[in-house]
Design goal:
homotetramer; 478 residues; six-stranded mixed sheet; TIM Barrel
Chain lengths: 478, 478, 478, 478
């Protein structure tokens, strides 16, 4: 049974502009042909007159299980795969037919990936890295160091082991060659690409420390390439970025985040010259303004540099990739004070990191920074496919490629905001029932109602310790 | 259908000694008669030749949900009642036909109580106080102050509200009369007795602060009595103890725990003179020795005073009650370092606080301190029934009382350790199927096996922060 | 050599109003007579025409060494007496001829007191309590609990011992009678009055816990009275206040600070009926407004209650005393963030707690709350002398009393702000050289200049840990 | 005036063995000749018959102000130079005529250095690096992160600036070239050599993170060499060590400390091949045993690797340097719990890090590991002079060199412990009055006596919070 899409303007990601009225013939999950409708015939026809068809959107950096809060990981222990599937369905509903998960629990991710690949559940196509090589687990100094001591050792170790396996912080103690061996062992477990830490994650010195030397980084990248996989790096300083590019990474994550220092011209040229994919994490102009109010002067230097970097990267000719660390935070987490002052605390229209909407924010932000309409489309599709070396199958609408595409009501080449006008999503050649997603809301479900007892628990006076103590002393804060 | 128990030595808790060969006739859940077997007839006969029948054991202070660790309360949210039922079944299996829960989540406790009372599930008879009046919830300065900030506000508040309702710390800000009104409102929700804090719980000054004044304490006790309920107090200093007795409490909890100071003679006499039930928390001689090795000198002063108090209380003629804060700690919690140096960290034979075995430890410890065999039995049965004013129904084997009894293989009047030789438990006139308990192991279940990933998470080198840093500096500890 | 003051309006604190033109004859440190100038002769005459003479101001609650920060106590170890003398000189310069120090290091305070009493150094007359009975030292859970572990044990213990001696927290473990013995031993060391804690200091439950029972409080007060000393209490709840009054205190500190609950009418009547001095800590209307912006809703409930209490106390007829916990914070401490949100963080015109100016704020605030001009003067002089039972010598301008007086340029009965127009201060019959005070500025000295190196220590980028880490995570805050 | 030393066995550090009976002629601070006593004449003669003369001992790594505890830095603010002079005098008294201070407050160190060089005060010759390039100050995440927030911002910033100036953590944000510029600016302030961080100091990941990339390290070394100075590195992993050697360092500090991993053979060969000085921090056999009892298994892996490294370094042919991070801890600090479990907590005979005795421990430890007597002497003298490129003047006893020498009672070539038998120290040709050192004991002074008040501060019961709270709960630890 074949499917013929007719009537739409086809923006195939190859041509310089959309082509009105071309039809797309799909069979067995792939695009068979694109051409004049009178030359093509399908057993079923969908009339998309007035619509705009684009390649399925991609996201070069999501975390389908980003909500690694102690409470959440306890509550859903044994169901992490369900959380990941929920997220993959949210992603698909938002037009992303393929997402690259760059940090998460390997086994649950691979299991969800395989369920989706085999058609057993709907969801965005997942490709995953498992752990970021060099990082310790969610309940460690790299992430939330408060948990050991609060949670039971059994659980804390279990969770950390689930994320880290053999490629955690201990690699820093080893020789480059010994690191290479551990990476090889990890790859054999079936991850789709390799991500390693050039800089530390940020809890120690805001990301300024280096996790691995140039030599170790080269060996990690070589191992990935030897295994037929792409390699990428987590960087957060200008030197960490330069090292990752020199090491031969296929792409670098959030490369505009370089602390208070702007990326020097030489590094920009190196990035473009080596055709290394450049993931950018931008702020919108409005988000930039809002954030300024809530962050310290020190932090602000970083946001300013990140913005200058984003603009310079656009000008540099590097291959820009859309990505946003997209994930789902449970509603009780979203309202916590710790969210404030991060860009996840921005209003939804400006918040980059949300899985369902952040890619739209990305497109708006980069449009503001001067990327052309077609460059935006490439950043969200073709460039990602190329950087991840899946462009034989994905990234553009061409005969022979997998039939992943999004149908929009409004023209995305007119305004980036039109990417939000999703009319239909077709993945692997089949129309997705968007209304049914996510099938089982967990983190996207509403908060449970307050218990009857809560009304009687009068917070105002219970939390006595928040009152000032001795009225003329300074000790109330202790 | 009536039941006739024959052949056993009956230790009824009334006579000075056991009576050989008397039969006990039970009908409709109550004891109909105790007498010569040839004078009694039942539709069913149980031959307990060579056994020893005693009144069902009681425990004047348990916490059926004592494992209020953040991780546990997240994992079992919505199932606290199941945890309580599990504990009530463990208690019953251990010979305790009635337990008094003196701190826990009121609604879940009452619901479990009612399920058991109505015969819908087996379990020890529960009578419960709900919150200790004056204490804040599990995730507060009174218990675990690390959790607010780690758990989501929604969950933290939900749990605290579930425990506290309207009778928490804020009462300290009120006048005695206003406290009385709040207590009255709480009683109307259906608790079985009242427990309030004379001293603070211990996180602030090891229990030395006073929570309520003499006047407030009197008003709380009066409210309880006006509502037909008994009143008791949590005390931890000699003055806090004296105040509770003067206020008219029917019993006082762990009254031998008075910090580094021994209870003065006047207070001992007051306790005995007012017939106030004296709950003692004793250490065995062996436990005392073990503990000495692991605690500081400061702590040791308290254990020494508690031991001297226990002995003096026995001599004082006060009505001694068996109790132990008995509860079930999940296996992952029992192995945590925080358990060490507490008496829950003692070996099972000496650990007072365990629900399944702690009452046996109590009996052994108090036997060592010179209580007579019959005084031990009374402490575990009749004295508790009298202090809680349920002695019309419980506490001894007498015609008309509820048929709660334990059948032992060995004579408890020979040695306190014989209480462990439980042959059968009969509650409400029915033989309990001990092997079936607990029906659904939750906290008593085994730990889950290690995940496959754990083998690869090499702890020895991951947790780098535990290594000394600069080798000649002192900074390794920071 | 006698001194005759002529020409001023004399507001003697006894008459209902000022008397124009009366002269005051002083000899040997005391007032010999007050009367018509033509009837009096002195060897020296001071012409205060157009001025206003009032009794020397008093302050019922200062802490001449309130700056008990670790850094300060290290820096000035061995010189605490010098800090106290500096503060006594600041107080004198501000018109306070007598101050009652209600918490501080006993030996240094007594030594400074004696130096001043013997005329060896100028300064406000000091009367002191030493430790607040029941409180632990500056580096303890009662004050700054962060210091043990940061400072060396030797120093931490030394400081705590210097403040606490034998009357600290451990008294809570004792029987009332044993507390009485310890208090008696403490009084023998020479303090001038007794202050004890009815409520805890505030670090545990914002002041809601009770430190001592009614019985213990009565015994402490009895010990003070038996020793010929007055007794007072630190209270912070309505019940703690009631207990202190019932125990027989001569005065109660900051009695309007009762957490979120207003003082009930019965307690107000008790206070007035027992003629117990009522120290009030008021906010000005403007300070009240400013503070509202910076404190939480929970804290605000307390400030509102404290304000209502202040007004109700004025109406109650109780003897109101001026006091403010007055002390000197070093300039580096005043600019610390922990000051914000306390009333010490208010602008100088509204900040109650500053030694040099806070009493003027007090007078302004209570004038706003409706106290009459003469009532204000009494609160600052006569009422304090009476409550402390030094009214034979101090508090009014009467023949036979010590010649402590303040000469103002403007009429204090016209406006409370005129108390600031200090023209001269006479203490013990001698004119004070105000310009020379403080003789040796320590805490009132300027900050040292920045070292040369500071310019090169670029804070903006050094403190990397303040930058957000992983840009899309929430971990920046950990 | 010239000085002739006669009668001793001269161990000049050049010959393979000591030469009996040679005389040493010294004039104007330098050695004029060494030869047969009948051929040499001095205006003054010192008869050292039966003694052993060796070159003045050197130490390649001391911290003359290592006691950077908050309390100490407050107490001695403005007198850091005095503390440094005291330490230099302790060093001299212990036979060290030259010490290399590799981390400390630059200005105070240079000032002490100059005072000693100009003969204004006795003391070991100081050569200093100032800050370790890349590290933040004493009150920062690199050292003691608890202090910001406890100390006033003014003081905390002042201290950090004094240590760090422009070469702190912020360099990690910069490009290699920009780091080079900052280093150049720092060198212009007059330090004697350059030390930078290859690995982080250890508070973040026990030293596993890298502070600077290979490229940055090369540029730092080049800047040092361009300025005519030697360069060295702080390393703590095998990769950090390799990078430092490759970068061209003249010596590497504590190169046997590489976490849990032993230095690979290739790196050992690189070290020897490049003639890079190898500072070793050894444990004695006995110290090793003692430490095993007090450290965790994780830490133990590091000590084991460090010991294997020390032995392998001896075998590798690398130039071994004596050093020990030698410094003086104040007595109140030495007795703090944080010292335990560090090698500073070992008994004096085994504790490497003490300034007065640690070099003797070093010699004993390395003798145990098989270094020959002459190799030990070289490690303590000539090797250090060569690595620091001061061998034209120092390190051996040769005509023309500075007359720094130590006279021993016992033969150091017989046993390493004989280095402790110091008979006399001659520095710059003059006999040092050892008994007079240190001239002004500060950190080496005794603790002040307990105040009178201390006897009354009964610790056992004051620190109530150390007592268990609710006796059957786990909350005592919170």
């Amino acid at each position: 049974m074949s499917l013929l899409l007719t009537g739409a303007t086809v923006i195939d990601g190859v041509s310089d502009q959309g082509i009105d009225g071309h039809a797309i013939l799909i069979d067995d999950g792939r695009i068979v042909a694109i051409g004049r409708p009178d030359e093509l015939t399908g057993t079923e026809t969908l009339d998309f007159r007035g619509k705009f068809v684009i390649p399925g959107l991609m996201n070069a950096n999501v975390h389908l299980l980003i909500n690694v809060f102690f409470e959440t990981l306890v509550r859903y222990e044994g169901r992490y795969e369900d959380l990941i599937v929920e997220a993959a369905q949210v992603a698909l509903k938002s037009g992303m037919t393929t997402v690259f998960d760059t940090w998460g629990p390997r086994r649950a991710l691979m299991s969800a990936r395989d369920r989706i690949d085999r058609g057993r559940t709907p969801g965005s196509r997942i490709r995953c890295a498992g752990n970021i090589i060099g990082f310790d687990g969610p309940f460690s100094d790299d992430f939330d160091k408060r948990i050991p001591g609060v949670g039971s050792s059994h659980f804390v170790d279990r969770v950390n082991a689930t994320w880290v396996e053999n490629v955690g912080r201990h690699l820093m103690w080893l020789t480059p060659e010994a690191v290479g061996e551990e990476v090889r062992a990890y790859l054999e477990r079936g991850v789709d690409f390799v991500k390693y830490a050039s800089n530390e994650h940020g809890a120690a010195a805001a990301g300024a420390f280096l996790q691995f030397s140039e030599r170790t980084q080269r060996i990690i990248v070589e191992e990935a390439h030897r295994g037929g996989l792409t390699a990428q790096s987590h960087t957060s300083t200008v030197e960490g970025l330069r090292m990752a590019i020199e090491a031969g990474c296929d792409l670098v994550q959030h490369c505009n985040m370089t602390g208070p220092t702007e990326i020097p011209r030489e590094t920009l040229e190196l990035l473009a010259g080596k055709n290394c994919g450049a993931v950018v994490f931008p702020l919108t102009d409005n988000g930039f303004k809002i954030l300024k109010e809530s962050v310290s002067d020190h932090e602000w230097t970083m946001w300013q540099a990140s913005d200058a970097n984003a603009r310079n990267l656009v000008d540099s000719g590097a291959s820009i990739l859309l990505a946003n660390d997209g994930g789902i935070f449970a509603p009780e987490v979203r309202s916590e004070p710790m969210i404030k002052g991060t860009w996840n605390g921005l209003p939804e229209d400006e918040a980059l990191g949300r899985l369902a909407t952040g890619h739209f924010v990305w497109l708006k932000a980069m449009e503001e920074k001067g990327m052309s309409p077609m460059a935006l489309l490439h950043a969200a599709t073709r460039n990602i496919a190329e950087a991840y070396q899946v462009d034989d199958d994905l990234g553009t609408l061409e005969a022979g490629k997998i039939a992943d595409l999004v149908v929009l009501d409004e023209d995305p080449l007119q305004s980036a905001k039109n990417y939000q006008s999703i009319h239909a999503v077709i993945k692997d050649g089949a129309v997705v029932d968007l209304d049914a997603l996510p099938e089982q809301p967990l983190l996207t479900a509403d908060l449970p109602p307050s218990p009857v007892e809560a009304a009687r628990y009068r917070k105002a006076v219970h939390h006595g310790a928040r009152l000032p103590g001795c009225p003329s002393c300074l000790n109330g804060n202790h």
